[in-house]
Amino acid sequence: MRAPSPLPLHLSAGPFTVHEARAASLQRARLRASDLTPGGRLIYLPAGWEFEMRSLARALTAATPGGWVSHLSAAVIYGLWLPPWFRGCRELHLSKPRSLPAVRREGVVGHTVLAFPDEVTVLDGIAISTPARTWLDLARVLPLEDLVAVGDQLVRTPLPGLELRTAAWATPDELRAMLLRHPKLQGIVRAREALELIRPGADSAPETLLRLALTAAGLPEPELQLKLVPEDPYSPAADLGYRKQRIAIQYDGAHHRTPAQQSRDNHRDEVFNAAGWRFFKFNADDLATGFRSAVRRVSLALRTA
Questions:
Q1: CB within 8 A of 208, min separation 6: which ones?
Q2: pTM of the prediction?
């Protein structure tokens, strides 16, 4: 049997639509070759393609007029925080306006929703709900603490020179406006509660979860990105803490394991300690237990300050 002719380069790396195949002058017989498998109506998958959310989302939205990626799938594409049990999900969520027929595809979760035009955007050729609308859609499935963590991620200012973005994905006022637009949406009560807990300044979801664990235990709300010398732009800073009691708190994630970051961390710790502060460091082990020990230690420090 003669091997099929090579696919055009732009079609060989991931899913593509029948319309893209026609634009590349592929004949119907070529689409039935052994190196392609059907990916649902109007979509083909190159043999050996390994699942990747973005490329599949691009093909599905191209093959679904009026549809856009939403909910958990949009969160994955944006790189938003999701609890461990939602990560690795291969279901793709597609939304359509109520004026169009619902999405019915194998492996696709369809949603028929009320959405305003400015709640859908295009990212790398993918029709997708905006970050603010994605946050609201997540309110129906995420626990409160995780929804707050996503909100903190949306409103934080990107680190200069370290991220592609230069502005926050959303502001608290934009999230509040989203709630006012959709007062009857499923999960709206949880979203309202979450909005009141969202704070700019958390650089990671574990930092948010640590802050929420402290306040849930009745402790005062800590200051975020706490600089040792507030007026000094180059001052070392802790993730959170209590200035009056001279207590600094740090969550050490995976990026703190590099030699360069450890050197910076050691310098920061030494400066805080030399200034007479108590410095607490927590990690993934503390996160896994809901920061119970962390809360006890910080609570004791506050009582004896």
A1: 145, 148, 149, 152, 202
A2: 0.88
